[in-house]
Amino acid sequence: MERYCGILKRALKSRRHPWRNLDHYVHQTACLTQLRFKYTLDEELGYKVDSDNLKNGERTFPDYPLSILGSPLNKNYKPTTEEWHEIAKLINNQLKTHLRSVKNELSRSFSTIPSWGRVRIAEGGDSIRCLSHENKTGERDASCVRYAPQENVVAYGQLQRILQCSLPQANFWENLSGKTLLLAVITPFRTNGKDATIELTTYRRVNAPVVLDIRHIENVVGRIHTGNQWAIVDRSDGLAKTIFTVDEHEVVPNHDEDDDSDV
Questions:
Q1: 227: phi > 0 → left, psi -120 to 50 → alpha, else beta; which?
Q2: Beta bridge partners of 159
Q3: Which among 164, 191, 205, 232 is placed 20 to 30 Å from 47, CA to CA?
Q4: pLDDT number for residue 111
Q5: Are the CB atoms for 159 and 221 separated by under 8 Å?
């Protein structure tokens, strides 16, 4: 909001009609934004296009080309008992074996695993920071996410951390042998499957943390505290687009060209 107010301040050109300046600037900027997204005019309109090139401290993995992990990195993070249990459940869903066997193999193979503090979704996606590192950066909260635990299921939660689990070469792991899994530890919000892009979505309580493949994360979301609950703000592609129309007989005056533009 502070940045947006700073942008609006630069639009003030008239002492007598400052509100007209602001009205026209907001209207024209909104029109350009709609044209930008509809016709992909980032380059033509001079918008900075995020590069997928790796920055300092970032890394990608072969099976996760769209997930760019970033610092801070804790190379020797020791997951909690609950996190190990959730990791074992996720792996067991793919191996279709006994959960206890998976937990035993994990305990024999690992004592610690790397934990990342940030992920950037490639091809113009969002940059998401984990809650475990949020307060250390002093930046705005970017840890709340929209994710899809199952196909056609919408859920929201808070990203706690990102775990890098590199499984060893062993017959026990079958098709996962030698592969690296990027796992997101998420605290789910109790939103009852509602989609915040099409209806008001609020929550008061959260569920126990779960571990999911990081590819289930779709985008970052905002939230607003109101009363005794939180409201989700989701600006993803499902959001209805505003259409700006001007009556064919209407002439839109331009009040910016005032002769008193002496600011």
A1: left
A2: 186
A3: 232
A4: 93
A5: no
